[in-house]
From TrEMBL:
Keywords: ATP-binding, Kinase, Nucleotide-binding, Transferase. This is Kinase-like domain-containing protein. GO terms for molecular function: ATP binding; protein serine/threonine kinase activity. Residues 23-279 form the Protein kinase domain. The keyword DNA repair does not apply. It comes from the Eukaryota. PROSITE patterns: PROTEIN_KINASE_DOM, PROTEIN_KINASE_TYR. The keyword ATP-binding applies. InterPro entries: Kinase-like_dom_sf, Prot_kinase_dom, Ser-Thr/Tyr_kinase_cat_dom, Ser/Thr_Kinases-Pseudokinases, Tyr_kinase_AS. The lineage of its organism: Eukaryota, Fungi, Dikarya, Basidiomycota, Agaricomycotina. It comes from Mycena metata. Gene3D superfamilies: Transferase(Phosphotransferase) domain 1.
C-alpha cells in the first residue's frame, strides 16, 4: 500500500494534497465501516481527517479513485460537505480525506440536543443536497441520519458522499452490496425479484430519503426494533415503518410515495424538493 500511495502523489494534481495539518487527536472521534475520523487543525481551523480502512483481498483502483475525487472536489453546494484535500502525512501508510469539522455533529445528535421544531427545514435542505448530487449524475448511496451533519449556521450538510462512492466504485474484490440495511430499497435487497441487478440509483436515494424523514422525526432508524434479517424480510414484503408522531398528513402521504416497491413509481428528487417547501406542520 505504501508503494501505491507513493504513486498517488504523481496521479493527482499537487493542489489536491494538504500539508501542515497539526494537533491530530490520538483517538478517533468517530468510526465507521470504511474509516476512522480524527479531529485535527488546518490553517487554525478544525478539520476532520478521515483515515480510510483497507481490507484483506481488496484491490485499490487508483484511476477510478482519481476520477471520483475530481468530482467530489468540484461539488460546491451549501448542503454538501466540502472536500478540502488528501493528507498522506498523518498516517503514512493510509489515505486520508480531509473536510471541515462540524462541531454540531450529526443531525441526530443536533435534534436530540435542540429539539425537533425544525425537522422539516432540515429535511428540505437534505432534499436540496440530494437534488444537487443527482443534477451532477451522482447518487449518494448511503443516505441516513449518521451521514447528515449540521453546519455552523445550523443547516444540513450531506457527508460521506465521497466515501460511499469510493467504497462502491474503487474498491474491487469487496462486497458490492455493502450498505446500511435499514435504509436500503427493496430492489437493492432482492434485485432478482424485481428483474434487475444491484445498482444504486436516484430512485434508491429517494427511498432512503423517505426513511430519513421517519428517522429524523423519531430519532431512530426505521425498523430499529428488528434484527437485520427481520428488517430485510419486512422491506421486501412491502412493510414500512409506522407514521411518526407529529408528522403532518401531507408529509406522510409523500413519504409513502417515496418508498413504494416499484422504483419507477417513486417521484424524482425535483418533486421531493417541491414537496418539502410547505410548512409541514399543519395548523391544529
Amino acid at each position: 500500500m505504501i508503494v501505491k500511495l507513493s504513486k498517488l502523489r504523481s496521479l493527482f494534481p499537487f493542489s489536491f494534497f494538504i500539508t501542515g495539518i497539526t494537533g491530530r487527536e490520538r483517538y478517533p472521534s468517530f468510526s465507521g465501516g470504511f474509516g476512522d475520523i480524527y479531529r485535527a487543525s488546518y490553517q487554525s481551523r478544525p478539520v476532520a481527517v478521515k483515515q480510510l480502512r483497507y481490507f484483506e483481498n481488496v484491490v485499490f483502483n487508483m484511476p477510478e479513485f482519481f476520477r471520483e475525487t475530481l468530482v467530489w472536489k468540484d461539488l460546491v453546494h451549501p448542503y454538501i460537505l466540502p472536500f478540502l484535500g488528501i493528507d498522506l502525512d498523518n498516517f503514512p501508510d493510509h489515505l486520508c480525506l480531509v473536510s471541515p469539522w462540524m462541531e454540531n455533529g450529526t443531525v441526530l445528535s443536533y435534534l436530540e440536543n435542540h429539539g425537533h421544531s425544525n425537522v422539516d427545514k432540515l429535511l428540505y435542505e437534505v432534499a436540496q443536497g440530494v437534488l444537487y448530487l443527482h443534477s451532477r449524475n451522482y447518487v449518494h448511496g448511503d443516505l441516513r441520519g449518521a451521514n447528515i451533519l449540521i453546519n455552523p449556521d445550523q443547516s444540513a450538510c450531506l457527508a460521506d458522499f465521497g466515501l460511499s462512492v469510493i467504497s462502491e466504485v474503487t474498491l474491487t474484490g469487496s462486497s458490492s452490496r455493502a450498505g446500511s440495511i435499514y435504509w436500503m430499497a427493496p430492489e437493492l435487497i432482492d434485485p432478482d425479484r424485481l428483474g434487475g441487478k444491484f445498482t444504486r440509483t436516484p430512485q434508491s436515494d429517494v427511498y432512503a430519503f423517505g426513511c430519513v424523514c421517519v428517522e429524523l422525526y423519531t430519532g431512530r432508524p426505521p425498523f430499529k426494533d428488528l434484527s437485520e434479517p427481520a428488517a430485510l424480510f419486512q422491506i421486501v414484503s412491502g412493510a414500512r415503518p409506522e407514521r411518526p408522531h407529529g408528522m403532518s398528513d401531507k408529509l406522510w402521504e409523500c413519504v409513502n410515495r417515496y418508498w413504494v416497491d416499484d422504483p419507477a413509481a417513486r417521484p424524482a428528487i425535483e418533486a421531493v424538493v417541491q414537496n418539502m417547501i410547505w410548512p409541514a406542520r399543519e395548523p391544529a
